[in-house]
Amino acid sequence: MAVKIKTKEDIEILREGGRRHAFILNEVAKAVAPGVSTKTLDDIAARLITEGGDTAAFLGYKPYGAKRPYPASLCVSVNDAVVHGIPNEEPYILQEGDIASLDLGLVHRGLVTDMAITVPVGAIDAEAKELIQTTKSALEKGIKAAKPGHTTGHIGEAVESLVAPLGYGIVQELAGHGVGYSVHEDPYVPNYGTAGEGEPLVPGMVIAIEPILNEGTEKIFLSSS
């Protein structure tokens, strides 16, 4: 699959989609609290998407290798669930001290944006706070490294150079990616690597940079669901 370069018009649509997307995700984040179910968060996201005249990119999405289409608008991954937690089939009631990752895809005027944030549920411990802050800092470093003349390896090196000395595990099987015409496009944007390696970054590329960190090991396993 070749990298798909976006037009100036595409990018303006994506900017507006991103603004709408950020608003929705922040509204969902405000609802995160002890006693709230993951299904409630999904319902809020679905309602706000519909009210804005847009559609949920993840609902019904079936990527390569998936056994079935995704059944919700939002992914809610709690604590040791790394990504793609299903919020509405076996809803989980959030507890004080949890952390919840909210991952949402939005289709605005036919183009896709993809965004995730991790938020605390009530009061959380110092280790969880540090994990969230480090991941935010890694994202900021990755964004600064995303410029014409660099490669995806510059982004990976920027993230890894911050994270690895702190002892966090960088999940190897999951990474950022191109986005816009579909949910997942080339290039593959890993959170580790070497500057100068990987795909060249050129004007018109649109990518989702997604640092995914664990406390301790980088290893993950696939849930039966």
Reconstruct the topology from this structure.
Layout: H1 8-30, H2 38-51, E1 55-56, E2 74-78, E3 99-108, E4 111-120, H3 126-145, H4 152-163, E5 168-170, E6 176-178, E7 185-189, E8 207-208, E9 213-215
Antiparallel strand pairs: 1-3, 2-3, 3-4, 5-9, 6-7, 6-8
Helix pairs in contact: 1-2, 3-4
**Mean pLDDT, nearest integer?**
95
For the report, how would you describe the main beta sheet? 4 strands, antiparallel
CATH class placement of the largest domain: Alpha Beta
Total domains: 2
Helix vs. strand class: alpha+beta
CATH topology of the largest domain: Creatine Amidinohydrolase
H-E string: HHEEEEHHEEEEE
Beta-strand level of the residues, as a percent range? 15-25%
CATH homologous superfamily grouping of the largest domain: Creatinase/methionine aminopeptidase superfamily
Taking the alpha carbons of the first and last residues, their distance comes to 28 Å
Q: How many strand segments?
A: 9
Radius of gyration: 17 Å
Fraction of residues in helix: 25-40%
Overall, the morphology is globular
Short synopsis of the structure:
It is built from four helices and nine strands, in the order H-H-E-E-E-E-H-H-E-E-E-E-E. The protein is of the alpha+beta class.
